[in-house]
Write a structure and sequence with these properties.
2 copies of one chain form a homodimer.
Chain A: E1 3-7, H1 8-13, H2 16-25, E2 30-31, E3 33-38, E4 44-49, E5 53-57, E6 60-66, H3 73-82, E7 84-89, H4 95-100, H5 111-115, E8 119-120, E9 129-130, E10 135-147, E11 152-165, E12 184-186, E13 190-199
Antiparallel strand pairs in A: 2-12, 3-4, 3-7, 5-6, 6-11, 7-10, 8-9, 10-11, 12-13
Chain lengths: 206, 206
């Protein structure tokens, strides 16, 4: 194989947009979730995130990275204020609307209104779910880690509730994201529909 | 839409394997990377991880979660020891071998030998790259965060080098993972080949 090589110095010399595309795409494919929050004046907010990560199953914990200096700053302050948020899986049909939530709307504009996605409230949970999403998680704030290296914030949440569209949940607990028509992303602007290659057995030394 | 609903109590009552499958799959699709490390006795180690996350592009920083109590414990101790590691994108052709690295091999067995993947060393960088991978990152350790909530470790690394197969790098800096035949994963055992839906323009308020 023939490779194109960059050292750290070469990356530093790239113009900003090139560097952003390069570094965002080298990590591999990313999940796409919409974070639903609400402030103390009952104003809703919705932001697309591609940094959601499974931390552990017992207890069920999920992390995400928020960059306070950029778009989802209302998301961060709302989570600190209310202690609750939702994660809503993005499907093929929702890609344009999800991407549009990354526009810099003023605080008095809800991304729900701006994009036409529908907030729903369930069982007294304070943060809004996205009605169009077939996989909706209610999350409660657990830990926040300030990452000194670049000033981002890592938010760790506990899974408070899971709502998954009928028919996608297997007998073994596996949620079939293919059946939900969920997407993944790469870089900052590319969206994909994954096709199953195979499921493999639990690995043991041969 | 009709939903199947779980509250935290319902999740807690699931048997272990069901809970692991459920919580691993609700976060969405995940990247698949092989982490290459080496110990002070020059023994190499290779571990598959699905928790790699872009933290920022300037400076270029990437995080991953390591669970010291489970399989990649050698990975964690090797990174702390040598301060360097590699991230190697997994392709369709490498899925079985990558998955097999998650088996619990004893410390004196290198997962390179056990799976038939090929370690290569480049430009004096101490950690081994995976020769079969078309996207190889040299990483230097930056920060470690111990996550109190479940005892996992978050490793933050700086991008030291990038080697990407010729032909996959766009003029805008975007690395086309499709051209590399890269995969994504869901749950603990399902692997997928994503198909591009579209790339979208930078979002602005309408």
């Amino acid at each position: 194989m023939s490779y194109k090589n960059f050292l750290a110095d070469d990356v530093e010399k790239l113009d900003k947009l090139n560097r952003v595309q390069l570094i965002n795409s080298i990590v591999g494919y990313k999940s796409v979730n919409l974070v639903g929050t609400i402030d103390q004046n009952k104003r809703t907010n919705l932001a697309v995130v591609s940094s959601v990560c499974h931390l552990g199953s017992n207890p069920p914990l999920i992390s995400m990275i928020i960059r306070p200096a950029t778009v989802p700053r209302h998301t961060f302050s709302n989570i600190l204020e209310s202690k609750y948020y939702t994660l809503n899986q993005v499907t093929v049909d929702m890609v344009e609307q999800a991407h549009q939530t990354s526009a810099r709307y003023p605080k008095d504009v809800s991304e729900f209104d701006a994009t036409g996605l529908t907030p729903i409230f369930r069982d007294g949970f304070v943060a809004p779910f996205v009605a169009e999403s077939p996989l909706q998680l209610g999350m409660s704030l657990n830990e926040v880690h300030h990452l000194e290296c670049n000033g981002t914030e890592m938010i760790i949440g506990s899974v408070h509730s899971i709502s998954v569209k009928e028919g996608a949940l297997g007998e073994d607990g596996f949620v079939d994201l293919n059946k939900l028509n969920a997407v993944c992303a790469s870089g900052v602007d590319a969206y994909y529909k994954p096709e199953l290659i195979k499921r493999l057995a639990y690995a043991k030394p041969k």
